Amino acid sequence: MKRRYSFPVHLTGAAVARTGDEMAGPALVLAGLALTGSAADASLLLAGVTVSSVLGGPVLGSLLDRAERPGRLLAAALALYAAGLTAVLVGLGRLPFALTLAAAVLTGLLGPALSGGWTAQLPAAVRDDRLDRANALDAMTFGAAGLAGPALAGGTAEALGAPTAVVVSAALVALALPAAWALPARTDPTPKSPTRGGRPRPVPSGPVPPGPVPPVPVLSDPAPPVPAPPVPVPPVPVPSDPVPPGSAPSVPVPSGPLVGPAVGLAVGLAVDLAAGLRAVVRSPALARATLTSVVSCTAQGMLTACLALLGERVLGGAGRGAMLLSCAAVSALAANAVLARFPRAIAPDTLLWTGALLQAAAPAAAVLGHPTVLVAAAFVAGIGEGPQLTALFAVRHREAPERLRSQIFTTGAGLKITGFALGAVVAGPVAARSLTGALLLATGTAVLAALAFFAVPAARGRAAPA
């Protein structure tokens, strides 16, 4: 049985790192505004650190899947993310803004490590029969971080200054390093032999291709291996066996101490990335969960872009609009606490589309413009968001092939973060012209997320891993 480390340590590390991440966005905006005096530059920093995650997620996930010690790689990603936040702060007001923005974009490539990359390691911390409850508790850390992060950013900026808020957010991410580093080694690492997922691959039958080939030992053949021909030839790979991850392809490559391994790693990553994409596309459950969650996050970004105006026009102050995020976080925590107590009460696939419908009800109710209705709408949004996230984790753990789990989690996280950012970018100008129009746009997008779930045909049986 593989050694597992303490689940409370895993959960605490995830909560601390995610709080630092949730704090980083508002802190960067506040620091950018304070040090550059430009609201446009401040918003660009936030966009840069979020949009780039869609590119970093798949590669980071593939590397985590290939690593024999994924905790070491996860810890390195956290350290680089914290260092990147610090570099952005140092560059503000001292370096050309283009360089600072580039640092924010590079930092954002590692963002999925704090969300999907960490959650993908959950099976190393709990037994399989406790995974459903652990999923709900893990999802609660997102709600707790969403509640505490912005509040810490605002409070620290008020008391100690906006730059200090960025330092504190980087420090929180760094505090999670020991929990990530302590993750146990993978007992069944990504195979470097003709196996996949721990199971031998069958040797294909059929005529042997023309030309000399090296001897291939077969267990069922007692005859001695045929000697190799005198003329050396490069090894010929088995047709159904792709290039083993981590090894160089069996084609001539430029010589040199680093070129061969570098080409092998690049080819292995390309193979893994393609396999991860196939796994999502070929599994109806994964495809539906991914599509529904990304479109839902786009709607969340649209609603978030309306909060300042809602606070100003309905609650009496733009700053009060941010309090609605706390209301949503509280209800998401409460809903996930109930799910943790009764993890199998509702099927995860059902929670995905019902959660989208609840999120559609929130901006629709906000159109009424009544303070009590607006606060209630924020609570309803959280009740939809929290369980939907728990259900998303459950579907990924259930359907993702083990050798591709980290990649599927981080790719999905990158897509969701990018969808949120794009939703905010689209809804911002619309809200400036018509707040009602932006709220209705968010409503329609959330309804579209629910419909997207049913747009992907369900499989008759369990989807076969790619």
Overview of this structure, please?
The structure is a single chain. With 466 residues, this protein is mostly helical. Helices cover 69% and strands 1% of the residues. The protein has two domains: 1-184, Growth Hormone, Chain: A (Up-down Bundle), CATH 1.20.1250; 259-456, MFS general substrate transporter like domains (Growth Hormone, Chain: A, Up-down Bundle), CATH 1.20.1250.20. The chain is built from 17 helices and two strands. The chain has a two-stranded antiparallel sheet.
Summary of the model, kept short:
The protein is mostly helical.
What would the keywords be for this entry?
about 475 residues; mainly alpha; Growth Hormone, Chain: A; 2 domains; two-stranded antiparallel sheet; 2 strands
CATH level-3 fold name of the largest domain = Growth Hormone, Chain: A
- The proportion of residues forming helix, as a percent range, comes to 55-70%
Q: Please give the count of helices.
A: 17
The CATH architecture classification of the largest domain is Up-down Bundle
Q: Give the uncertain stretches in residue-range form.
A: 189-209, 216-226, 236-255, 461-466
Shape call: globular
Order of helices and strands: HHHHHHHHHEEHHHHHHHH
Number of domains: 2
Strand content: under 5%
Distance between the termini: 26 Å
Topology of this protein?
Blueprint: H1 7-36, H2 39-51, H3 53-66, H4 70-91, H5 97-108, H6 116-119, H7 131-160, H8 162-175, H9 177-181, E1 195-196, E2 199-200, H10 259-282, H11 284-315, H12 318-321, H13 323-341, H14 348-366, H15 371-399, H16 405-433, H17 435-455
